[in-house]
Task: inverse folding
């Protein structure tokens, strides 16, 4: 079974600075998807960025980028030019690419609470 | 297109009461699932369904029942609520991997349940 570990329960960053959130995972599969979700106080789960394991190029979405190290099974999220609106819980998640029923399920880490200080 | 909707948003129950959390989606997604979120635990899969009439257990299924009579709806039933079921519940849906090459899952807004 796959597992996802986020070793930083809480992180803080100054507004306009850069912060990196860590995520490691364990799997025996060679292809899979990885995601970062943001959960603000509104509770809504918002997809921030996704990475397909067979793609070597790191995904980027505006101020958000990932450092995907497949051999090390590491998938960190970098937030540049942090804004007050980035304050939230961030969850790392894994999904298989297999096509049998049920493979669509997401395996989540425990989350990292990010505080942005003005 | 409302996406994934959940009702109610908040609910307080007494131990032993039963209730149903509703989930509906209007995107014709075959796959639907329920997660619970507890502090320090992330989201854990309760039950999932890959189509009408087909359901299966996830990581933490005890105390919950589901059924899928239509593509659109996937209710979660608590037959006899316990304080350990105090949590935030999320419904999510997506296309099946074998029918559509997309990995995006859509989440509902969540239901905060308190069992006294």
Result:
């Amino acid at each position: 079974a796959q597992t996802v570990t986020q070793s930083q329960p809480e992180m803080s960053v100054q507004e306009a600075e850069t912060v990196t959130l860590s995520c490691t995972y364990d799997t025996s599969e060679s292809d899979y998807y990885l995601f970062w979700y943001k959960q603000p106080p509104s509770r809504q789960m918002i997809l921030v960025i996704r990475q397909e394991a067979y793609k070597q190029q790191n995904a980027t979405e505006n101020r958000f980028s990932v450092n995907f190290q497949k051999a090390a099974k590491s998938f960190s999220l970098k937030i540049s030019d942090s804004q007050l609106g980035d304050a939230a819980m961030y969850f790392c998640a894994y999904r298989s690419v297999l096509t049998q029923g049920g493979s669509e399920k997401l395996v989540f880490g425990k989350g990292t609470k990010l505080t942005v200080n003005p | 297109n409302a996406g994934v909707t959940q009702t109610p948003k908040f609910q307080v129950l007494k131990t032993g009461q039963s209730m149903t959390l509703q989930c509906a989606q209007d995107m014709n997604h075959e796959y639907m699932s329920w997660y619970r979120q507890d502090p320090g635990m992330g989201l854990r899969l309760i039950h999932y369904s890959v189509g009408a009439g087909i359901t299966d257990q996830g990581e933490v299924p005890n105390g919950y029942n589901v059924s899928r009579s239509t593509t659109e709806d996937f209710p979660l039933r608590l037959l006899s609520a316990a304080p350990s079921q105090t949590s935030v519940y999320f419904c999510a849906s997506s296309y099946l991997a074998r029918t559509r090459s997309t990995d995006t899952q859509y989440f509902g807004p969540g239901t905060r349940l308190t069992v006294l």
Chain B touches chain A at residues 31, 33, 35, 40-45, 48, 50, 54, 56, 58, 88, 90, 92, 94, 96-98, 103-105, 107, 109-110, 112 (CB under 8 Å). The mean pLDDT of chain B is 92.
